[in-house]
Every structure is written in C-alpha cells, then in structure tokens.
Amino acid sequence: MHVFIAVFCVIGAFAIRNDMNDVYVMAAFGVVGFVFSRLSLPVTPLAFGLILGPILEENLRRSLMISRGSWSIFLERPISAALIAVCAVLVALPLLAAIRTRLRQRADA
Q1: CA-derived radius of gyration, the chain
Q2: Crossing angle of helices 20-38/2-17, nearest 10°?
Q3: If you average pLDDT over every residue of the chain, what do you get?
Q4: What is the pTM of this model?
Q5: Are 89 and 95 in contact (CB under 8 A)?
Q6: What local confidence, expressed as pLDDT, does residue 77 receive?
C-alpha cells in the first residue's frame, strides 16, 4: 500500500511542471517528514510550511513593493502590529520555559 502512495506522490510532483527537481524536493521533504515521525515531532507544521510558504513569500514581496521596501509597513497598522507581537510572545514562551527548566536543574544540583 505504501508503494502506491509513493508512486502517486512521485507522479503528482512530476506532473505539476514536468521537472525532476520537483521530485527531488518531494523526496527530500519526505525524508524530513520520516525523521520528524521517528523523533515524534509533529509533521503538520512541515506540511503547512510547504503549502503556505509560497503564498507568504508572494504577499510579503507585494507588501514590500507597495511600501517601497520599508519594513515599517508591518508595524503601522494596529492589527498587523498586534499579530507580530502575539507571534513574538508565542515564540518566546517555549524558550523562556526551557531556560527556566535549566535554571531549576542547576539550582537543584
């Protein structure tokens, strides 16, 4: 059954642009997904990144063209500034938790 899935993935990756490089990229990310599953890491963020990455890149480029290359466009509007702040907090929380855990381990030792 897994062989059929792999064959359909290769055919689908090649059929999009008739380019073997797409098949190589698909295989590389397949290996990354396999490593993620072996390490018990979630594979969903990888899939979201592959799907949403080109859309994000296109719209980032469009925004920077509108603002003539100024990154301040992302902080001028309250909604985008709030979303950036929320993202920064969500990235910082696990880092702070890891630092706190290491400090506790050093204090206990």
Answers
A1: 20
A2: 140
A3: 86
A4: 0.49
A5: no
A6: 85
